[in-house]
């Protein structure tokens, strides 16, 4: 009973946020944009969509995307009702800065914090990589284009004096990044 109550409360909050400005766009199924198919957002969004559909009898369809930035852009265009994003990307959208310079999205609302989002930089077990600065001149995966991973990677590298011109940039998801690393391409 408690699980169903929480699901109903959170769904109501999502619907209220989604319906605030353009109620005519939000028929069924509700579109819940997530992230790349190999990331956490995708499987979590699929599970939540299934639960809401089964428990609340409200059709919710999860949809893969490139992640946080794309999700908010899809919501702003009315192509999604509910989305995952990270707090820094939501801040950028709401304030019209960073990735959303000149494209402010004031109608976005944060409904809950799901888990801490910790960024990792992974390198091969190689003596030449002892610090982030050692990545200068290498091939590096920023993450999928339009993802929070891309933005966060850029921020971390820039904080260590590494710009995009200093490395060979790749914009792919987690599976592709693993393949590139395995093949010695990054």
UniProtKB/TrEMBL annotation:
Task: List all membrane-crossing ranges.
Answer: none
Query: Origin, by domain of life?
Result: Bacteria
Q: Where is the signal peptide?
A: 1-23
Task: Give the protein name, as stated in the record.
Answer: TRAP-type uncharacterized transport system, periplasmic component
Q: Could you list the residue ranges forming a coiled coil in this record?
A: none
Which SUPFAM superfamilies is this protein grouped with? Periplasmic binding protein-like II
The entry's keywords? Signal
């Amino acid at each position: 009973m408690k699980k169903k109550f929480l699901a109903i409360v959170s769904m109501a909050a999502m619907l209220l946020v989604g319906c605030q400005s353009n109620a005519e766009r939000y028929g069924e199924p509700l579109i819940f944009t997530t992230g790349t198919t190999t990331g956490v957002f995708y499987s979590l969004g699929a599970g939540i969509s299934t639960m809401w559909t089964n428990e609340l009898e409200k059709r919710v369809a999860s949809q893969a995307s490139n992640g946080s930035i794309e999700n908010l852009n899809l919501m702003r265009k009315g192509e999604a009702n509910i989305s995952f994003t990270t707090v820094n990307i939501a801040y950028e959208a709401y304030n019209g800065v960073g990735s959303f310079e000149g494209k402010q999205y004031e109608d976005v609302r944060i409904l809950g914090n799901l888990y801490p989002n910790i960024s990792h930089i992974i390198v091969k077990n190689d003596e030449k990589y002892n610090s982030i600065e050692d990545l200068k001149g290498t091939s590096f995966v920023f993450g999928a284009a339009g993802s929070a991973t891309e933005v966060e990677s850029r921020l971390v590298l820039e904080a260590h004096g590494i710009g995009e011109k200093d490395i060979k940039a790749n914009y792919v998801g987690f599976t592709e990044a693993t393949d590139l690393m395995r093949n010695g391409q990054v």
